[in-house]
Amino acid sequence: MLAVLLATALALPAATEVRRVPAEDARQGAVSDGRHLYAVDNAAISKIDPASGRVIARWQGDKAAFKHMNACIALKDRLVCAASNYPDVPMASSIEWFDTRAMKHVASRSLGPGRGSLTWLDWHGGSWWACFANYDGKGGEPGRDHRLTTLVRFDRNFAEQGAWLFPPEVLDRMAPYSSSGGAWGADGRLYVTGHDRPELYVVALPEAGSILRHVATIPIPTNGQAIAWDPKDRRLLWSIERKARELVASRIPDVVEK
In terms of pTM, does the model score above 0.90? Predict the structure, then answer.
């Protein structure tokens, strides 16, 4: 079965790097709301003018309360962020809301312990989609490893609607860590990253069963971490270069299945 899955996944041309924006808080993820860029760290978010690269405003949270904020999405005048207590165990997660006009924290929803450590979420098709990571070593729990990384669909009130595991060959590329970023594309496919490899994995919901279908792998210029599409350009993806502390925009090739 694994050989069949590997044979059907597309190997696409590499993404084309468009620009880099220095950002000291680019340690976990990047976000664009179409007007501003945001660099996400464990307990901090910088709001950046995309033209000049200047930091307009910055939120700094209590590092004890905001232990590991990993990825955010922009919804109107809000950032909605996935957070966890990584690397503490048992794993517990929360969702945090921020007002982008005042750059302040405005709401929190605790998800507690459960399927793993929440690393990213997205709003798509009238539902919340959340990834719960599991790890082989640091931050993992006994009896669980990266293979239990799970995509969960919730309704708008966070009642669970379904759950899927990731394709084995994608999980092998992420090991011993998990998925650090994910975002639904305008083409109806889900684009995810791991923790280290400079790769973007394109997956789709299966026609049947509980394992996502691996559609394609796309080389990207940055090493995993959280990602976000640019609202003004359907194929422009923002990611981070953690070591360089940069936000990076890349043009992602179209995915065409024959």
Answer: yes
